[in-house]
């Protein structure tokens, strides 16, 4: 029986005499997700760790950390974790809010030539950066921003999922190396190289740039034959300019993305909030002009970075 069949076989079962698993929604490398009903009638999502990991303390700890990190963010755009526990045979699970809609990855895959409309991408990115700003203010670095971990609800809201590998900066020694966690296609150079001490909010900023690059161009920043090769490129190769992959993209949008993707984190957007401000300047420029002019952004450090002039 393969993984999907095993996950589907649990549909209809009841966890802890409380949660009935109604529908299998999907599975990743670590866990399966179900729509479920509590005995009081509430509808929730259950994220259940794959049984083969249930005796691995490191994996279980990382899995349960998702709830602590997501709730610490305290932003409506971060998927809320209601409870955590173990099922009747000791497998950890999370109880989460049940979302209606689809992942951003699903929208991207359906788009012509895998390219979303620029205004839609700017809207998603602006909302995402708002969540990340709140997370970074509370010492939470997501470390796995990608289309699969972003959910667009039926009401048009963006939800950030899967804080399972988030780094909680408070109390972290920051001395480890070689702990490479994340998705190579959206991983900042310092993260891909395993330089844990250097992974801060600017790593998430790079990932937002990589996300926008992919959604706007239909390709990844670093194209490669294997994830391992992609990881090597991410750790060693500067990102190309967005306009080399998508020449028709508005110049101001390209500049925001290019700054986010700078190899040296010291000359990227200093924070998610400042990148968000840069995007807003560009969005305003685009809405004012039917034939958008080039937008010049002042990139520097501190609170001056990212303020633009049309």
Label the structural class: alpha+beta
The count of DSSP E runs of length 2 or more, i.e. the number of strands, is 13
Run of helices and strands: HEEEEHEEEHHEEEEHHHHHHEE
CATH fold category name of the largest domain: Transferase(Phosphotransferase), domain 1
What would CATH call the class of the largest domain?
A: Mainly Alpha
Average pLDDT taken over every residue? 89
Notable characteristics:
13 strands, three-stranded antiparallel β-sheet, Phosphorylase Kinase, domain 1, Transferase(Phosphotransferase), domain 1, alpha+beta, 310 residues
List strands and helices in order, with pairings.
Blueprint: H1 3-8, E1 14-15, E2 19-27, E3 31-38, E4 43-49, H2 57-73, E5 81-86, E6 92-96, E7 101-103, H3 104-110, H4 118-137, E8 140-141, E9 150-153, E10 158-160, E11 167-168, H5 189-192, H6 201-217, H7 227-236, H8 242-245, H9 251-260, H10 272-288, E12 296-297, E13 308-309
Antiparallel strand pairs: 1-2, 2-3, 3-4, 4-6, 5-6, 7-9, 8-11, 9-10, 12-13
